[in-house]
Amino acid sequence: MELKFVDYKAISMCKLVSMEKVMKFSSSYVDSKLMFGVNVAPKFCYCRGLLMKASYDATSSVTKKNFLVDTFSYQINGTNHTSLYFRDKWVLDASDDEYGGVLINPERLPSNPDEFTFVLRASLSHWKVKGRKGVWLKLPLEKCDLVPIAVKEGFQYHHAEKGYVMLTYWIPDEPCMLPSNASHQVGVGGFVINDKNEVLVVQEKHSAPTLSGLWKIPTGFIVESEEIFTGVVREVKEETGIDTEFVEVMAFRHAHNVAFEKSDLFFVCLLRPLSKQIMVDDLEIQAAKWMPLVEFVEQPLIQGDDMFKKIIDIFIARLGKRYCGLSVHQLVSKFDDKLSTLYFNTVDDPDLNCQTS
């Protein structure tokens, strides 16, 4: 549906008609008229010192693409004035998503808060008539002053990044089917062992008091669009300077209510060292070294923790070829035509006695 843009400047010049009242009138008028396929508006507005006449083109087409022309004629102290406005639609620029919703174009959002309020209300009414469902509104940092307006209109926070905040609005009178924000963070730890049966270990500068003095394997978080097998190699390199080759995922842990009430996936990976010289990352790491496996296992904090002990058992079983982890296989699925990484257990060497334990 095509509607016209109101000359708020002209209207607000009337002392008896506040901007807030104009916005409420315009919004309620749009809500009541959007169901019709014609463009109609009141012919006259009159108040002390201001006679304004609005002229509109009418059309029965809801798909017409041409620009609309609005002419406003008004008088101030007996002087005639005319304003001309061009606007393609009185609806926010948006694209349809594959689930019956809309994605609002953040680059074409009105900068003026009053205009944004009015057009947002008109857009929601328009999308409701059209049978749309979820609305995604991405507000860049430079337009953060529009956030309270969207929230007041019923939008809810979905997630935020450094440069924007994403809000959503569910139109149908039924349970919301929009996907929730990301629920997990993904961490990795690298078990790196050399030909001398030594494990690459670190002591972190910032750690919980309960872990004071612990020599642990290098760990970290996967960054956006990063694979597990490349992320763990990167983390080991950043913390210790050691180049490695990914071998397999030996095990992974799943925990809940960790950081900001999110769940946590932590993948313990076996890596093969490609270099020997350690170069410590001074920002995160206090010290790093190659530690004999026996000495690493006998640490009191390792022996006193069931989780650590089990991981060590798995690691030793893997070295003894009594256990096989999950190796990397990259495949393309017809479901989305995208390259995915599948981790699974496979035995290529028939002479390898690799059994789960």
Summarize this structure briefly.
With 357 residues, the chain is an alpha+beta fold. 22% of the residues lie in helices and 32% in strands.
Strand content: 25-35%
Percent helix, as a range, is 10-25%
Structural class by helix and strand composition = alpha+beta
Largest sheet: 5 strands, mixed
Q: Provide mean pLDDT, rounded.
A: 78
Oligomer state equals single chain
Poorly predicted runs: 1-74, 81-88
**How many DSSP E strands?**
17
Number of helical elements: 8
Name the overall outline: elongated
Give the neighbour order of strands across the main sheet: 5-6-7-9-8
Task: Give Rg in angstroms.
Answer: 31 Å
Distance between the termini: 66 Å
Instruction: Give the ordered list of helices and strands.
Output: HHEEEEEEHEHEEEEEHEEEHHHEE
InterPro entries: NUDIX_hydrolase-like_dom_sf, Nudix_hydrolase6-like, NUDIX_hydrolase_CS, NUDIX_hydrolase_dom, Pre-Nudix
Organism: Anisodus acutangulus
GO molecular function, one term: metal ion binding
Family: Belongs to the Nudix hydrolase family.
